[in-house]
Amino acid sequence: MTEVPVAKDAVAGTNDLVVLKSVNKHFGALHVLQDIDLTIARGEVVVVIGPSGSGKSTLCRTVNRLESVDSGSILIDGKPLPAEGRELARLRADVGMVFQSFNLFAHKTVLENVTLGQLKVRKTDKAKAEEKARALLDRVGVSTQADKYPAQLSGGQQQRVAIARALAMDPKVMLFDEPTSALDPEMINEVLEVMQQLARDGMTMVVVTHEMGFARSAANRVVFMADGRIVEEAAPDQFFSNPRSDRAKDFLSKIL
Ligand code: ADP
Ligand code: MG
């Protein structure tokens, strides 16, 4: 069993790994993120929940600058994300992202999917990159699939490869945007188990999910969003047993 990379620089200056301050974002007339203040500590697991359209995906996408913001600031490990260029690619690699749709490179093998970023962005040599890729594929339970193409794998296997690919960059934080929503039910647990293990190993994680079992067992904090705002945040026990806002009560009554 190989060691999973955990958040780096555990002793670096501040304990705040991701800091959003007064972040605002519009899509035309739609104010999709409204004065978002959110601080995520090193090693913390934050689950983001809320109704469809509340801005959860946009929030994730702003954190690694797949979307720009209109105002406010976002710091990753104390540094703002640059607007573009090489420096952005390097800093973006510090923020691993796993999407609902698996987003693997269809014309590359599983192994190539996990080595590509290491070779291009981290400039790792090929033998080292492959060794690390194989170790990570073993870690997420798909080592026997290394030479296949993504379409030859089940959805659950593809999503575990996507996690291995993100981990190969030694990210400081991992963002998961509904990683199990597109999976057949019998494959959801195999992906959640990999995420649970990552959380136990100390990875800093932001997870958008409707899997309340995962939220209860893995999250340090639940953030509830509605209409572009953070309406409520609390420890999972407190949030699920005693939500304060009417919006959260209404949401929970529909999903639980
Ligand atoms: P969630 O992930 O919580 O379902 P999203 O962040 O995907 O919410 O979307 C929030 C709102 O922003 C929705 O109303 C959505 O239609 C809108 N939206 C998302 N992306 C875009 C875009 N690229 N252009 C215009 N509107 C968008
Ligand atoms: Mg979404």
From TrEMBL:
Name listed for the protein in its UniProt record: ABC-type polar-amino-acid transporter
A GO cellular component entry from the record: plasma membrane
Enzyme Commission numbers on file: 7.4.2.1
Class of this enzyme: translocase
Transmembrane segments: none
Organism: Streptomyces spongiae
Family of the protein in this entry: Belongs to the ABC transporter superfamily.
Domain of life the protein comes from: Bacteria
Location within or outside the cell: Cell membrane
InterPro entries per the UniProt record, alphabetical: AAA+_ATPase, ABC_ATPase_HisP-typ, ABC_transporter-like_ATP-bd, ABC_transporter-like_CS, MetN_ABC_transporter-like, P-loop_NTPase
Signal sequence interval, chain numbering: none
Family matches, as PANTHER family: AMINO ACID IMPORT ATP-BINDING PROTEIN (PTHR43166), GLUTAMATE_ASPARTATE IMPORT ATP-BINDING PROTEIN GLTL (PTHR43166:SF9)
Keywords from the named record: Amino-acid transport, ATP-binding, Cell membrane, Membrane, Nucleotide-binding, Transport
Alphabetized SMART domains for the sequence: AAA
